[in-house]
Design goal:
Length: 248
């Protein structure tokens, strides 16, 4: 079974080489690697070119943001399974994709998989700042959801249920997981180990304003999918467990 791994980037010269090396070093031997760049003006394209022999498809052109770029990558994908590793993230081990695909290859009818992840320091990916232990599936409206970088989905699910809703700004990744798992009840599997190291930061969690905007967009995600949520309690349900994940 083939897996398509997608990396989206924009002016990522300080981090993308770690990501590229992380994909290149994976032990699974049936990977289609796709890189979608937003028209970088720094050294990102030189680094992509350095690894072009390991990249099956890549494009660099303006886009409407990170989730529009992800949609482009998914449309380009020909694998049975699709996974996304952003240009400031890396796999936790060289066997991460092998472990993912062992599950899919053993469960042919499985639609999706999610796992745990580590948030790490921007400057030292060996320094774990937060451990996201996702746990077994629970209701989204009680604050549970998988870490998006650990979410692997059959291509046929995207073809049938749609791509990322780019109108939801900071919660497009949340919305696609909510739509697939909660609304359409696709089958999913919890792989109880960290798959990804994600650098702490980003628009949704590096400022109070970003956190507020993300929570507003998450509530919108419930509404566009006609799913019930308590708009007053949901931010509490969502944020409190995350605070407990930070390493003391």
């Amino acid at each position: 079974m083939k897996i398509s791994i997608i990396t989206v980037s924009y002016n990522s010269e300080t981090t993308i080489e770690t990501t590229l090396q992380s994909v290149v070093n994976q032990t699974y031997d049936n990977i289609e690697y796709i890189v979608v760049d937003g028209g970088s003006t720094d050294g990102t394209l030189s680094l992509i070119d350095k690894y072009k022999s390991h990249i099956d498809k890549w494009v660099s052109e303006p886009d409407k943001g990170i989730f529009d770029a992800m949609n482009k990558g998914i449309k380009m994908a020909t694998g049975d399974v699709v996974g996304i590793i952003n240009s400031d993230d890396l796999f936790n081990s060289d066997r991460s994709i092998e472990k993912v695909m062992n599950v899919f290859n053993s469960n042919i009818e499985l639609d999706s998989l999610y796992a745990d992840l580590y948030y790490v320091s921007q400057t030292d990916t060996n320094k774990i700042v937060r451990r996201w232990i996702t746990g077994e599936k629970r209701p989204f409206n009680k604050g549970w959801h998988p870490g998006h970088p650990t979410f692997y989905v059959k291509k046929k699910v995207y073809d049938k249920r749609g791509l990322y809703n780019i109108d939801l700004a900071l919660a497009s990744d949340f919305e696609v997981m909510l739509r697939f798992i909660e609304k359409y009840q696709i089958s999913t599997y919890y792989l109880k180990e960290p798959l990804v190291r994600m650098r702490l930061g980003g628009a949704s969690n590096n400022s109070f304003k970003g956190l507020i905007t993300q929570n507003i967009d998450c509530i919108r995600a419930f509404r566009v999918n006609n799913l019930k949520v308590n708009k007053f309690m949901y931010p509490i349900y969502r944020l409190l467990p995350k605070l407990l994940q930070f390493k003391k």
